[in-house]
Design brief:
Layout (H helix, E strand, L loop, with lengths): L1 H12 L6 H8 L2 E6 L4 E3 L7 E7 L2 E7 L2 E8 L4 E2 L2 H6 L5 E5 L3 E7 H10 L2 H24 L3 H11 L9 H8 L3 H12 L4
Antiparallel strand pairs: 1-8, 2-7, 3-6, 3-8, 4-5, 4-7
Length: 195
Amino acid sequence: MEPYLSNMKADYDQLVPVSDGLYKSLSLHLEFKKAKKGELLKRVGEVEKCSRYICYGFVGTYSMAEGVPVLQNIFQATDAVFDAHSYITAEKTNTEIRVISETAYFEFSKIDETWVVGKFPEFAKLGIEINHRIQQRKDMQNAILRLGFRKGYSLFCKLIPGIQDCLHYQDWVHLFNSSERTVSRVLNQISRPGS
């Protein structure tokens, strides 16, 4: 856990530097977890009660469409993932959070976050910067997704290195809101030698 905590501190220090002592206090409220591909971190119809800082691996947010989970966004190392609407409003939502590859993450409960921010106001500023970064990264991802699969696939794989080995064919269809024919054609061209 310690190397991952040091990596998280180094990452967040780029946003807002916080003392080692405060991080030690914070670490008492973080739960280090590992999850396997396919594991659900939040189910549809549940209230979000925590945020998660990804140490390694990929996690996706999904919405349900006619009982089928549809991939919306992907999160990778140094991203924070949670159902923001449910977290803020304490309402049940149609969002599911699922592990896409073997993943390790720190879980930070909403109750502990409220306590830490109340006791150490410095973390409130960091929280604001983390939320800005989440939105910027989602905006970058969504801008690529709007390009369509043909133009966006390679850019998306550069933005999230290694994701091409973790997603199923149907995930790409949903993620890019693309036709199966387009996804099939592009992936076949890429897999052909010399293409």
